[in-house]
Design goal:
alpha/beta, eight-stranded mixed β-sheet, 8 helices, 37% helix, globular
């Protein structure tokens, strides 16, 4: 399997590329600048050298259009929110027959402790509106700290909430995400992304607070003990 990560040169995209490659998933990171993407891919491969599962799943880089074309099925959108809509509009034709995994959170400009949801209700719903119902959009991986993803010696410390309007697409995304040794849950239709995406600024607020003794926290779904 080969997936694409658009915005793969940023901290979140880099961390996901490394984690998926370590899990044996080939990754092509996309950027507006294909040369920059290739440069970052080389740096990430150097980090992975010596990781047993990663040797056969090297990371490559390309411009966004070529990255989508190179991916077999799954496309992860990890661009800044300011580039969310325009990136999807520019790639709509290439995204036909793919599944888009939207991890973008619409944080307020200059205030990462609050959301600024689009008129559609969430970034996930906005993506679905732009692409049309024939291209499945699945919201996932919103609440994972980039710092956590890039600490490869440590396991990912949270569960993953997955939402979208097409069940089969969600099931495929859950199977992919669980290759990262995390638990992923189907939490309903795309409208529920309004709640899932809004968790991120709450975590940011906690993680930067001087009143709590931790940082880079995530969320866990706890089963009853009885």
């Amino acid at each position: 399997m080969k997936i694409a990560i658009l915005g793969g040169t940023g901290p979140q995209g880099r961390g996901l590329a490394l984690r998926f490659a370590m899990a044996g998933v080939a990754v092509v990171i996309g950027s507006r600048d294909g040369a920059r993407a290739s440069e970052i891919a080389s740096e990430l491969n150097a980090q992975l050298r010596g990781q047993s599962a990663a040797d056969s799943a090297l990371i490559t880089g390309a411009d966004n259009t070529q990255a989508v074309r190179d991916a077999e099925k799954m496309i992860v959108l990890a661009v800044p929110y300011s580039a969310h809509d325009v990136t999807l509009r520019n790639l709509k034709v290439e995204l036909a027959d793919k599944i888009l995994i939207d991890i973008v959170v619409p944080l307020q400009e200059g205030n990462p402790k609050a959301v600024d949801m689009p008129s559609e209700g969430s970034a996930t719903e906005a993506a679905q509106a732009i692409l049309g119902e024939h291209i499945p959009v699945v919201g996932a991986l919103h609440n994972v700290s980039a710092a956590t993803l890039n600490k490869l010696e440590q396991p990912i410390n949270c569960d993953i909430l997955v939402c979208g309007n097409q069940l089969e697409a969600k099931n495929q995304v859950i199977a992919l995400v669980e290759r990262l040794n995390v638990q992923a849950y189907n939490v309903g239709p795309a409208v529920n992304a309004r709640c899932v995406e809004a968790i991120t600024p709450m975590l940011i607020r906690l993680n930067i607070s001087k009143k709590v003794p931790f940082s880079h926290a995530g969320i866990k779904i706890w089963a009853p003990e009885h």
